[in-house]
Write a structure and sequence with these properties.
Layout lengths: L4 E3 L4 H8 L4 E4 L5 H6 L7 E4 L9 E4 L2 E5 L4 H6 L1 H6 L1 H8 L4 H6 L2 H7 L6 H7 L3 E4 L3 E3 H4 L14 E7 L3 E8 L6 E10 L2 E7 L6 E2 L1 H9 L3 H5 L16 H19 L2
Parallel strand pairs: 1-3, 2-3
Antiparallel strand pairs: 4-5, 5-8, 6-7, 6-8, 9-10, 10-11, 11-12
Amino acid sequence: MYAFTFERPSSLADATKLAANAAARPLAGGQTLLASMKLRLANPEQLIDLGGIAELATIKRDGNAIVVGAMARHADVAANADVKAAIPALADLAGGIGDRQVRAMGTIGGSLANNDPAACYPAAVLSLGAMVQTTQRQIAADDFFQGLFTTALKDGELITAVRFPQAKRAAYMKFRQPASRFALIGVFVAQTDAGVRVAVTGGGNGVFRHPGLEAALAKDFSAQSAASVAIDASDLASDLHASAAYRANLISVMAQRAVTKALG
């Protein structure tokens, strides 16, 4: 690693001041940043460890929504009674991220800020129409994700929490890449008061909604309806793990399984 200074603020106000330094990087779970630093792909002059800020790690129910603090660990989301009762699909997703070590250290805020194109949390945020709360504003899920490792976050802006509205039905299914356990394809399906939303991760440059599946499931929320939708492979990724055509087939299969799971 390169030389850097290490800060561990105990309050969000102190963290926000430190984050104003353009050469600083916030440290959430560190699952991506530390690995990047070891490979010398990242060279921050200062690390701001957010692990000492208790208010960022809370998980609470607020009316018909669940508010998950940015520093809530994956394991905590998976085990939280309020999450399991209100949005069991979210708890299920968190429990399937990585391995036990990753779930013990990784955080929802770190995952969203990094926006890996095969990460699981972005699919839940986008499908459920969640609101990302930051030190400066609230950002709707549809506006937050902007492509490969790119988000709407500005320099110095920190995620503080994610507000998930409760869905009528929701489920997440993913086909794991065996080594990394990232989603080769993951599909999160949610039926809400506003309609049906379907988010796909692992397919290309980032998480995206699938209008065809949404339209079909809005008319008939069934696995048969999902199966009737033709999945276009032209914009999907093709690599050593899977071809674009294979990923297209996986989107259809995972969508059908997610709907079946959501229906119980």
